[in-house]
Amino acid sequence: MRVAESLNRALHEVLAEDPSVRVLGEDVLDPYGGAFKITKGLSSRFPGRVLATPISENGIVGVAGGLALAGGKAIVEIMFSDFVALAFDQIVNFASKSVSMYGRPLRLPLIVRCPSGGGRGYGPTHSQSLQKHFIGVPGLAVYEVSPFDDHRELFGEMLALGEPCLLFEDKILYTRRLFGDGVADDLFQYDLLPGSGGVTRVYVDDPGQADCVIIAPGGVAHRALAAMRTLLLEREISCLLLVPRRLYPFDVTPLSPLLERAGAVVVAEESTAGGTWGAEVAHQVHSRLWGRLRRPVSLVHSAAGVIPAAAHLERDVLVQDTAIVRAVQELLT
């Protein structure tokens, strides 16, 4: 099953199991079913619970936030995550504050789905990874779709939080197959790191004997895997990949024994550098393990520039597996 099909099936199951859930967004009704077909079939199966909206991201999130605050549950689709900037006010100034600013805790089960990232030739304004702009907002959780994850469980976890959640869905994952049965490929296996709250670890042989740990969100997982393959087969360097389900709040404490044992950590993400999720992870690692690492945590980002539509130029800007390989080699030199 491909990731897009998995997300679509998960939404069907969520709506079937909970009549209080509503889905809102632009062009989400059948027969179109959303720009990436993640909402396909929902409006036909659940009439009146899937609402097509005008092109107004701030208005869509505002309505959904009010619906959630009034006792319902809302899942919003932002057609491209670049447009979530237009809903920044409703997310940061209304939804995230509403759970705690009325004198008592209130539930606001809201998920804002954000198809993100480049690699599909959509150009500068439809390819960005804007996660970093929502890291550190009290009352707001940030998640990212992973090809290792159970997406029905993912939606259930976010709705159960009772707080607004942003879910970033890297668009290049939509056509990729979901990993299953603990097998990533012919070299690597995966499982959930015990006690981590949803961090997948991908490894060859013993995860506790890796030379380096790579931490990456789900959208970068395939590039990290490609880098790990190159490092293992061509350099005999063994890496452990950690892929968290939730990016913020994020606690590195459960990861610390693995990070300390390796002594070398690379964080790879697709956003541009500066105030990023990766920088937050590096800060936590340094606070806990400074003096027990071979070198400071290495951060890998996309280049600081607009994302071109032309495939060869786009590839030059976005973070690639080769950049991760270089970062690991430099760290271990």
UniProtKB/TrEMBL annotation:
The keyword Protein transport does not apply. It catalyses: N(6)-[(R)-lipoyl]-L-lysyl-[protein] + pyruvate + H(+) = N(6)-[(R)-S(8)-acetyldihydrolipoyl]-L-lysyl-[protein] + CO2. Keywords: Oxidoreductase, Pyruvate, Thiamine pyrophosphate. It comes from the Bacteria. InterPro entries: PDHB_mito-type, THDP-binding, Transketo_C/PFOR_II, Transketolase-like_Pyr-bd, Transketolase_C. Its cofactor is thiamine diphosphate. GO terms for molecular function: pyruvate dehydrogenase (acetyl-transferring) activity. Its EC number is 1.2.4.1. Residues 1-176 form the Transketolase-like pyrimidine-binding domain. The keyword Oxidoreductase applies. The pyruvate dehydrogenase complex catalyzes the overall conversion of pyruvate to acetyl-CoA and CO2. PANTHER family: DEHYDROGENASE RELATED (PTHR11624), PYRUVATE DEHYDROGENASE E1 COMPONENT SUBUNIT BETA, MITOCHONDRIAL (PTHR11624:SF96). This is Pyruvate dehydrogenase E1 component subunit beta. It comes from Nonomuraea angiospora.
